């Protein structure tokens, strides 16, 4: 593979992750920060750049998960509107589903490091070229190379890579597979730019038995982990939808951990009419015994 | 040296512990998870606080909720819903206590005999288990379920199906009925008011219809622990085991240690035979390892953990059946949307059922909003109207099966959760060697290599698949009969919570781990007393009653074979777990 192909492949890949959108004009990281030539970046500038990159990745992950949250429960917010399913009643953004997901992914999913690390590495080095034509970006080759190096340094060396990042990376890759135009537009995340049907299509790719993406990612793992990873991805596909839906309808956003009380009425309760007068000790719904029978015997 | 060590304080372990404590044996119970001794301070009844599988107070993990849960691998879209802690997974069960169908035992000779999983029957007769069913039914105690609106709606649907009402404990054929439940019937104000002030014990006794079963039962307020409505083992068998000295002549209370993760079973060779000699367990808090020896070791860590512990202990597996033959009732979920009030989600999670041997069964289920959303999105058939993931079956429900999610779910619940009625489809599923637990290739955790649960749900046997389709169709028919305006089938991905038979007992040495006494064939003095010991999926009935009946029988076998004692179930009468002597003693113990 020639150098230029690699560069092109990496550029496409970074764009698809949503990273190029987050950098440069109007982005979270200025082009100036990337000005240092790639060669030097190895030494002095890189640690600083990695530190700058970390919050960018966190923002990107949040934006991506906003796109997932409203997929589970649309509401009166811009993400739902962009998805083409606007709604007058509260939705996942009001239920703080994104926070629910980030907290779960980053703090509580007992995802072994030995798996998170290769997953990060796969995103750092893998998926060079899937032959998808992408609109250009305004980064110069030198800037791009620096960014790429910083990303690789972060993904491969960071012992505590938050799981929300590889998960959003996955969703954004799928998003740009479904609709290459999603590399540009409002929001940071390509996934968040998709409409509802396109998001569904992204999940179809993830859940499907023969997802190319699964096969591609598998390449990054040694056996016997390899087989586990493709199975896990199928699980992840389902779990993201199920967990986002579950979270959206819980009391998460209005639960005070200190007092173990609610500070407001959960969105899920508003939408479903659950417990109109708040928590109960019991209901007056006892009708009697079917056909008057209170016990049975052989 | 202890007489008996029981590993796991879930649905099965405490039964053996309580029975042998009553015989005066020295019993140690080791439980990997927490003990919720003060539920009013530790629980809330809120869905995320309770049921978040990663951080909820009900999860598979250590007491310290700031530490991650224990990771399990499953390599398909599925969910294994198992809890750690005293009470185990019964902490959020519904207390449905139907007996196993007679057709799954080896003496069954009715005309439909061959329609069951005849290669994996119980190695004894239904009649053999009846005294043990009766013993558990009296102990728990099991009662005919009270009816709320959601039951009345379910029965209205059943009445259109041309089936009889079952009025016996034993299921003789297709029929419907209120559940026989391990739930105390409502007494006093319970079920008759929403006024919190009137719902305190003893003005209210039994089930208050709060609808929080999945979040744990701590009602009525002020009741002693052994008088809470739902008979999860933390309310029934564990209190009995801890107080055996006050209700059993010559009884000796068990010692219960929590946050104690058993990582190894030890064996030794005696007179040419391999025998269990003790266990090593790890303290979740300090990380310290402890070793205890015992004459008999009883595994009751559940269907997923027992095979793991077996493998990690390096125990022999001569016929390669350890972890195999896992059954899960291959559930499905069908929802009806009504114009009128359905009572969902009030009262016990489920109080009505329909049995349809040899296909399986149905039960109504009431769920709060978040679990409802989880239940409508756990599908193997993609998203309705978007993609079908290669499946999306159609039938007497509306449109193709699949997830009801996003805007469609929002619209569905907008009429109110209490305009929905959900039906759990329970399949009589075959024991299949390839549905199993193996050691995961993923990294070990602090307790050793972790288990991986594999269900080949897309290639289950023809009989299992037929049964599921048949029962899903019946569910839709039932809901329409009850007046549902729209009916949705989700086509659930495996939701593995009726877990059975992964360390099964069997007639043949070729395909079973346990002999008919529930003693392992390979290691003497090593018994199994939880759902994994069951020979099969029981034909569809919820497993806990049968597990507890079998565990009671196993306790007798242990006492006879290893301690030279006499059996008692046919000779004595059981003490009910709500006995006031137990309440008083619990009070003295500060429990
Ligand atoms: C929502 C829900 C509803 C249900 N409703 C019903 C119902 O209505 N009726 C019914 O019959 N069944 C029901 N079930 C199933 C029921 O919960 C199980 O049948 C029952 O809990 C199984 O008991 P068990 O002893 O096999 O396993 P568990 O109850 O899972 O107990 C295993 C215990 O062992 C502990 N353990 C595991 N490994 C170790 C180790 N190495 N060292 C120490 N301890 C260990 C675990 O922490 C756990 O406490 C329901 C389940 C769920 C999830
Ligand atoms: S509904 Fe009844 S059994 Fe269930 S938690 Fe409430 S009081 Fe307990």
TrEMBL record, chain A:
Mind telling me which InterPro entries this protein's record contains? TAT_signal (IPR006311)
Name listed for the protein in its UniProt record: Uncharacterized protein
From TrEMBL, chain B:
Residue runs in coiled coils: none
Q: Where are the transmembrane segments?
A: none
Question: Carries keyword Transmembrane?
Answer: no
**The UniProt record lists the keyword Flavoprotein:** yes
Tell me which InterPro entries the record gives.
Answer: FAD/NAD-bd_sf, GMC_OxRdtase_N, GMC_OxRtase_C
- Tell me the GO molecular function terms: flavin adenine dinucleotide binding; oxidoreductase activity, acting on CH-OH group of donors
What are the Glucose-methanol-choline oxidoreductase C-terminal domain coordinates in residue numbering? 496-551
Domain of life of the native organism: Bacteria
Keywords recorded for this protein, A-Z:
FAD, Flavoprotein, Oxidoreductase
Provide the Glucose-methanol-choline oxidoreductase N-terminal domain boundaries: 178-330
Family to which this protein belongs: Belongs to the GMC oxidoreductase family.
Please state what the protein is called.
Oxidoreductase
Q: Which organism is it from?
A: Prauserella muralis
């Amino acid at each position: 593979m020639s150098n230029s192909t690699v560069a092109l492949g990496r550029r496409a890949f970074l764009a698809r992750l949503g990273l190029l959108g987050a950098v440069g004009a109007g982005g979270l990281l200025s082009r100036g920060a990337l000005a240092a030539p790639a060669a030097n970046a190895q030494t002095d500038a890189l640690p600083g750049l990695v530190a700058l990159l970390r919050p960018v990745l966190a923002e990107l992950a949040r934006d991506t998960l906003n796109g997932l949250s409203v997929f589970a429960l649309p509401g009166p917010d811009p993400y739902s509107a962009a998805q083409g399913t606007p709604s007058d009643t509260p939705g996942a953004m009001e239920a703080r589903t994104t926070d629910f997901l980030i907290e779960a992914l980053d703090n509580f999913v007992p995802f072994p490091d030995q798996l998170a690390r290769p997953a990060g590495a796969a995103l750092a080095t893998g998926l060079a070229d899937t032959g998808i034509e992408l609109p250009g970006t305004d980064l110069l080759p030198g800037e791009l190379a620096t960014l790429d190096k910083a990303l690789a340094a972060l993904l491969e060396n960071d012992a505590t890579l938050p799981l929300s990042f590889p998960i959003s990376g996955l969703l954004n890759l799928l998003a740009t597979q479904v609709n290459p135009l999603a590399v540009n537009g409002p929001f940071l995340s390509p996934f968040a730019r998709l409409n509802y049907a396109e998001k569904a299509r992204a999940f179809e790719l993830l859940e499907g038995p023969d997802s190319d993406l699964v096969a591609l990612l598998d390449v990054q793992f040694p056996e016997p982990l390899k087989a586990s990873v493709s199975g896990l991805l199928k699980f992840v596909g389902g779990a993201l939808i199920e967990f986002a839906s579950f979270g959206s309808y819980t009391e998460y956003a209005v639960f005070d951990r200190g007092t173990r009380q609610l500070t407001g009425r959960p969105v899920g309760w508003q939408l479903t009419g659950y417990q109109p007068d708040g928590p109960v000790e019991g209901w007056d719904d006892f009708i009697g015994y079917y056909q008057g029978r209170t016990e049975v015997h052989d | 040296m202890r007489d008996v060590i029981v590993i796991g304080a879930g649905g099965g372990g405490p039964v053996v512990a309580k029975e042998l404590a009553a015989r005066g044996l020295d019993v140690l119970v080791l439980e990997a998870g927490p003990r919720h001794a003060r539920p009013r301070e530790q629980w809330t009844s809120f869905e995320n606080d309770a049921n978040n599988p990663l951080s909820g107070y009900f999860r598979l993990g250590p007491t310290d909720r700031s530490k991650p849960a224990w990771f399990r691998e499953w390599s398909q879209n599925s969910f294994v819903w198992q809890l750690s802690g005293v009470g185990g997974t019964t902490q959020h069960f519904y207390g449905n206590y139907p007996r196993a169908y007679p057709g799954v035992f080896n003496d069954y000779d009715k005309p439909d005999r061959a329609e069951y999983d005849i290669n994996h029957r119980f190695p004894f007769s239904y009649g053999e288990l009846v005294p043990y069913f009766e013993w558990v039914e009296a102990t728990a105690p099991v009662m005919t379920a009270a009816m709320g609106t959601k039951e009345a709606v379910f029965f209205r649907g059943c009445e259109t199906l041309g089936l009889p009402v079952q009025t016996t404990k034993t299921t003789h054929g297709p029929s419907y009925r209120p559940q026989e439940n391990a739930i105390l019937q409502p007494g006093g104000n319970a079920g008759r008011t929403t006024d919190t002030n009137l719902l305190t014990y003893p003005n209210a006794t039994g089930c208050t219809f709060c609808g929080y079963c999945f979040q744990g039962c701590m009602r009525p307020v002020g009741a002693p622990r052994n008088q809470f409505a739902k008979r999860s083992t933390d309310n029934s068998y564990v209190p009995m085991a801890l107080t055996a000295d006050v209700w059993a002549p010559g009884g000796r209370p068990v010692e219960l240690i929590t946050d104690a993760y058993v990582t190894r079973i030890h064996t030794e060779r005696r007179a040419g035979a391999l025998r269990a000699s003790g266990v090593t367990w790890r303290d979740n808090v300090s990380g310290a390892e402890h070793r205890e020896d015992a004459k008999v070791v009883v595994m009751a860590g559940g269907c997923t953990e027992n095979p793991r512990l077996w493998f990690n202990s390096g125990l022999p597996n001569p016929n390669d059946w350890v972890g195999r033959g896992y059954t899960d009732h291959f559930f499905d979920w069908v929802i009806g949307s009504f114009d009128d009030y359905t009572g969902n989600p009030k009262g016990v999670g489920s109080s009505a059922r329909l049995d349809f041997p040899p296909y399986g069964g149905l039960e109504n289920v009431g769920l709060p909003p978040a679990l409802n959303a989880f239940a409508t999105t756990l599908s193997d058939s993609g998203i309705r109207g978007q993609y079908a993931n290669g499946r999306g079956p159609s039938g007497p429900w509306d449109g193709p099966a699949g997830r009801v999610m996003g805007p469609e779910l929002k619209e569905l619940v907008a009429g109110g959760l209490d305009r929905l009625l959900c039906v759990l489809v329970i399949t009589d599923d075959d024991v299949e060697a390839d549905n199993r637990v193996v050691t995961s290739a993923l990294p070990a955790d602090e307790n050793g290599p972790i288990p991986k649960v594999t269900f080949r749900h897309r290639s289950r046997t023809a009989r299992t698949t037929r049964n599921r389709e048949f029962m899903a169709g019946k569910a839709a028919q039932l809901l329409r009969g009850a007046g549902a305006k729209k009916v949705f089938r989700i086509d659930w991905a495996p939701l593995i919570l009726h877990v059975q038979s992964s360390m099964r007992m069997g007639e043949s040495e070729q395909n079973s781990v346990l002999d008919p006494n529930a003693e392992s064939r390979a290691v003497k003095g090593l018994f199994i007393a939880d759902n994994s010991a069951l020979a099969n999926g029981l034909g569809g009935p919820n497993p806990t009653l049968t597990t507890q009946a079998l565990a009671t029988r196993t306790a007798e076998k242990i006492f006879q074979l290893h301690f030279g004692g006499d059996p008692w179930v046919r000779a004595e009468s059981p003490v009910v777990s709500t006995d006031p002597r137990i309440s008083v003693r619990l009070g003295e113990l500060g429990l």
